[in-house]
Amino acid sequence: MENSTKRRSSANHRTLMDGMIVRGSRIPWQIWAITLIVVSGTVGFTATSMLLRLPKSPQCVRIFWPVASASMRLYCAQIEAEQGNVDGLLRAINLVEALSDNHPLRHEINRNVEEWAVAILDIAEKEFQKGELEKAIKTAREIPSHVQVYEVVEERIEKWRSIWREGEEVFAQVEEELRESNWNLAFREAIKLLDVANEYWATIRYDDTVNKIQLAQEESAQLDNAYRVLRRGGLDNWLGAIADAEKISPESYAYREAQNLIEEAKGKITDYVDDLIDDRRWSTLSNTVNKIPDNLALADEIEDWQTMASAGLDAQSGTVENLEIAIVALEEIQEDRPLYQEAQDLINRWQLEIEDVTHLEKARDLATGGSIDDLNAAIAAAELVPSSNPRYQEARREIRQWTNTIQLREDQPILAQARSLALGGSISDLREAITKAQAIGSGRPLSGEAQKEISGWRRSIQRKEDQPLLNQALALGSAKNYESAIRAAQQISPGRVLYPKAQENIRQWQRETRAQRNLQEAYLIAQSQTPQALVSAISVVQKIPSSTDAGSQAQQALDRWSFQLLSMAQKLANRSLLPEAVKLAKMIPSDSAAYGSAQAQITVWNKLLEPPQPEIPPSLAPENEFIPIMDSRDSD
What we know:
mainly alpha
């Protein structure tokens, strides 16, 4: 079909040319030129249109392009472009761009090239939207620089980069908030990704960011539990907190927080171990080091701790041989190790111990004899250990122990003899026992026991000396000779064993004497038999406690004088002096037998004192008279 079309086009072209030559003498050459251009353009347009409608042909791959016609190039270029990929579009552009700028098909070629360049830019845009920024830039720059669309390439690339920077800035802020564990602020920043003009940032990166925030929240919650365990203290809790924190992966935004927790726990472990070393708790140090895992980046420290624990346990036995073994072990800790200085301090200490440990061992050997002479010899040997020696405190403990043993053996016979003397029970025996026990000086092991015995014996002596005085006072008190009883009891001095009991009886007898004096005073006041005198006498006897001997007499006098007051009040009432009668009756106390009668009379007299109610004459209030009842609403 293509060959037949070309043949028809060529035949028509030759016929037209022949006609123009035959009649050239009669037609101007300008007309022939215009006609030739129109015909050529028509043929080119027709050929191009037919070419665009041609089916794809595998002949394009076998064409030798230097001799290929323009229509064939355009045809094959269209086939390449229809692949829809960058390589095909670029090959299409290269095929047609080989033709000259003044080629008759240049207008159609340029139109197609612009369409293919736009298609390449569209592909680049899709790549950018998929998140492939650099690939999109590379694709866009594949567009030939001479095509019109190339003018917007750099502008489009700068726009992509600006959008990409916007997404990266938002994401960087999200990451910063996540590192600070500000979950709400991180999510608020992440929402800004939805406004980024890029599908990759607004969808894939947004979803990924939200998932990371949720994961960081979950892992931070795990760290919260680890921190609670850490704050409980103790090696097991510190190691447990580290184990929880190590579960956080390096990719996690909570990783930095987890590492901070691990470092804090490691610091606590290190401080704890340092305290164990300072306190020379070697057994605990050994057990602690065995629990510390190898993955804590404390390999050098753990090795030194193990060496020090082993050396400390050797030195703890106190023998010269073991001290030398401990020193050799610590000398393995090199100068560049963390615990080098601590090891040197211990070596110096143990070297000093070796110098005087012989004295202490000799002292212990002497003390095994057990006699007082052996113990004194042991003390003398131990005192050779100077105060500057590390074993000085240990030597002093041994000396104190041996001294206590000597003092016990010296004082036990003295205390036993004193107790034997006290068994006699007499005052002289007890005093002799006290004198004997006082030979045990203060600060000695049996000093407290001796002082306890002495106190008991002194109380016995005081009781034996003061009991007759107390018995005499009690006898006088029973005979109601209270003044004499008080004088007898007051002979017992303060601080003596019977003093509290004597004072208790004295206070009781003093209450009895005061009650008697008050009763006699009341009798004297009441003798005048006036109302005022009786009231005064009653107030005096009311002060007398009922528990005293005079209590019953006081109550009888109160009742008698109250009835006398009531009788006087009735006489006043009989004389129509009702107010005075009421006033006098009110002075009768409530704890008297006359109080009830007095209150009844007061009620009667008060009614008599009330003014009489006026009577309404019968003429003013006739029977059956209707009296209207006003409603509450009528009162207004």
